[in-house]
Write a structure and sequence with these properties.
89 residues; mainly alpha
């Protein structure tokens, strides 16, 4: 008779190494405005999946798209200013 053995020890043996590092958590926190703006944009699109978009829906999508782009620009500008040493002379 063959016994079925659990693999819990093998799966959980590396759990400490699978946790995100502080640097990864900081990166996620820096990107959170972009993530939330993308979620809002997806929500705006999802609302219109089962119907013809109205003028109000179109405006909501445009606003959400502008917010998502603005959040991305802000993230890129923050990253660029953080990586450049010194500043304007």
């Amino acid at each position: 008779m063959n016994h079925i053995v659990t693999v819990q020890d093998a799966v959980t043996a590396f759990a400490d190494f699978m946790e995100p590092t502080d640097a990864e958590l900081d990166a996620i926190e820096q990107e959170m405005p972009v993530i939330l703006a993308d979620v809002d944009l997806l929500d705006a699109h999802i609302v219109t999946l089962d119907r013809t978009p109205t003028e109000l829906d179109d405006r909501r999508i445009r606003r959400a798209r502008r917010r998502a782009l603005a959040a991305r620009v802000a993230l890129v500008n923050r990253a660029a200013s953080a990586s450049l040493p010194g500043g304007a002379a």
